[in-house]
Specification:
Layout: H1 4-17, H2 27-42, H3 51-58, H4 62-74, H5 77-86, H6 91-106, H7 114-125
Helix pairs in contact: 2-4, 2-6, 3-4
């Protein structure tokens, strides 16, 4: 069993080398998703889709959608400001943001999703 001192030294080395992981999507796409979730959450439409269905349409997990809704209920002022300043979000804007994300991913500025990483590993091994 390693000594306490060697464990602390190893921890210090690891902390010195640590860097923040690259994001999964561009900032623009993240903001568009937040705006669309806020738009869905505050919508007065009687035919509003379920949270899981809306998350599926946005291409995100329903747990992230739930997390965003909790953030909005805790402090909706920031999203209201964005909503007023930029108007209602559209799927065309989300599509443009996703194109930007794909370009950044091709340049290596973003990390791959788990599924894309698994596919890359599978094809490199075979």
């Amino acid at each position: 069993m390693p000594s306490r001192e060697s464990s602390l030294e190893n921890l210090a080395k690891a902390q010195a080398r640590w860097r923040r992981p690259r994001p999964l999507r561009s900032e623009e796409e993240g903001q568009m998703i937040r705006r669309l979730v806020f738009w869905w959450f505050t919508g007065r439409n009687h035919t509003k889709p379920s949270g899981r269905d809306w998350a599926r349409q946005l291409g995100i997990s329903h747990t992230w959608l739930q997390k965003l809704v909790r953030e909005f209920t805790a402090d909706p002022s920031e999203m209201r400001r964005l909503q007023i300043a930029r108007g209602d979000p559209t799927f065309a804007q989300l599509s443009r943001a996703r194109e930007n994300t794909n370009e950044m991913r091709e340049r290596g500025e973003l990390r791959l999703s788990r599924l894309a990483e698994q596919k890359r590993k599978f094809w490199s091994e075979n």
